[in-house]
Amino acid sequence: KLDWSRGIPWQHYKRDRALDDVRNGYTIFIDYTADWCANCKVMLKTAIERPEVMAVMRELNVIPYTADYTLPVKEIKEDLERYQRGGVPVFVVYRPNDVGKPEILPEVITQQDIVDALRRAGPSRVQHATKP
């Protein structure tokens, strides 16, 4: 079970792990970011790490991932190419049990953009209530 007591409990992104979570019925949010990306830091503070967004993530039992592209990572580069994006930031929401068609959010997002995308994806639909 994720610990939300200190903010968003970011999970280190590994594609196989994230897609397994989707296949197992979880809604996931991925923040593709990098230390050198000023836009990424602004979006994190103004749109993502906000009480309203965190509340919806908790309510829907979303697993939040951070995909760190500070140093080039082949897996993340492949993801960005698949999403037809030249670089970070990229924000992606996967619906439970649907690895084929994630929702790719705009490069500049608001809290409401994230909340709306998470609500469209809907709550996690796992057979058991706890995350391994």
Compact overview of the structure:
The chain contains 5 helices and 5 strands, in the order βαβααβαββα. It is α/β, with parallel strands linked by helices and 132 residues long.
Structure description:
By secondary structure, this protein is α/β, with parallel strands linked by helices. The protein is built from five helices and five strands; from the N terminus they run βαβααβαββα. A five-stranded mixed beta sheet has the order 1-3-2-4-5, sandwiched between helices. Helix 3 (51-60) runs parallel beside helix 5. The longest helix has 11 residues, at 38-48. The model has no long low-confidence stretch (mean pLDDT 94).
Radius of gyration, CA atoms, in whole angstroms: 14 Å
How many angstroms does the end-to-end distance come to? 7 Å
* Number of helices, where a helix is a run of at least 4 consecutive DSSP H or I residues: 5
Q: Please outline the major beta sheet.
A: 5 strands, mixed
Strand order of the largest sheet: 1-3-2-4-5
Low-confidence stretches: none
Basic shape: globular
- Number of DSSP E strands: 5
Quickly give the structural class.
alpha/beta
Which strand-content bin applies to the residues?
15-25%
Order of helices and strands: EHEHHEHEEH
Mean pLDDT: 94
Q: What percent of residues adopt helix (DSSP H or I)?
A: 25-40%
Features of this protein?
132 residues; 5 strands; alpha/beta
Per-chain topology:
Blueprint: E1 11-12, H1 15-23, E2 28-33, H2 38-48, H3 51-60, E3 63-68, H4 74-82, E4 90-94, E5 103-104, H5 111-121
Parallel strand pairs: 1-3, 2-3
Antiparallel strand pairs: 2-4, 4-5
